[in-house]
Amino acid sequence: MRHCGVAIAVAAILAPSLAHAADLEVFKAEQPTIYVPNNFLWNGVYVGGFVGGAWATADWGSGAIALTLENGNVASLPVRLAQENVPLTGFVGGGRVGVNYQAGAWVFGYEGDFAGTTLKGHATKPFNGTAGKAITVEAMGTSVYQTTTDWAATFTGRVGYTFDRMLAYGKVGMAVEQDGDTEVSNTTFCQVMDNVTKPTPPPRTCTGSLSRAGTATRYGWTAGAGLEYAFDKNWSAFAEYDHLGFLSHLVNLTVPGSAGTVAGTRLIALNTDRVVVGANYRFNQP
């Protein structure tokens, strides 16, 4: 009995401490919640606009022109024309529409754009030639080649990699472009030989000229790369470089006022580079 009483006394002494320990466990302070923000998402349809500068080279292939002389003995003089490269410079501006799909850090999408341009350039090339039947005539002069680009459109696929709000991307696809081509030739003629009477006649000069022009709609390829930064959940700004390449196209050149009569053809190739900056607005953003 004596041992039982001691146990009861010890229990009575320890009971308050055990109850206090239980209270500490029940009222243990809660841990603070750590908030982790979600990464920026590039998904959705977007529209945008851009402006910038462009430069190009029009490669005029070799060809010939036929100029009518004042000398009745020679009805026309075919003059061979050498190849000439025409540099172009100007501004570009337009709009675009596209769609993005994000998978992890990668972004895939499609984009189409249309731009008007002020690209324009010309070059002057000297030429000479001889022709004739009864009388040999020599022609010497110059031709002025001019090319302008009116508009360009592209349809591309895009692949990019995100660094949260920064997107680095590349693009490749199809390009369409329309240009105008004009050639103006001015020639001085000199009669150098009379094949009938044999003696060399005194020089005779006269002036001939020909102006002919045409347009071409070209189909080719494009590739480019750029950086885009989202400064708002819907708005982003970008900077981009593009190259548009077109193979040689046979351009029909007609004489103004001739009701579309073809006065010759020239093979002309065109390559365009441009650097643009702009902004996009994305829809469907939370």
Structure report:
The two termini are 77 Å apart. The chain is mainly beta and 286 residues long. The strands form 2 sheets. An 8-stranded antiparallel barrel has the order 1-4-5-7-8-9-10-11. Helices cover 9% and strands 69% of the residues. The protein has one domain. The relative contact order is 0.19. A hairpin with a 4-residue loop joins strand 9 and strand 10.
Summed up, the domain count is: 1
Count of helical stretches: 1
Give me the Rg, rounded.
39 Å
**Global geometry:** rod-shaped
Model regions low in confidence, pLDDT < 50 over at least 5 residues: 6-12, 71-75
Helix/strand structural class = mainly beta
Instruction: Please summarize the sheet with the most strands.
Output: 8 strands, antiparallel, barrel
Average pLDDT metric: 79
Concise description?
The protein has one helix at residues 2-26; strands at residues 44-60, 63-67, 77-81, 84-103, 106-117, 120-131, 135-163, 166-194, 205-230, 235-254, 262-282. The protein has 286 residues and is mainly β.
Short descriptors:
mainly beta; 8-stranded antiparallel barrel; 11 strands; 1 helix; two-stranded antiparallel sheet
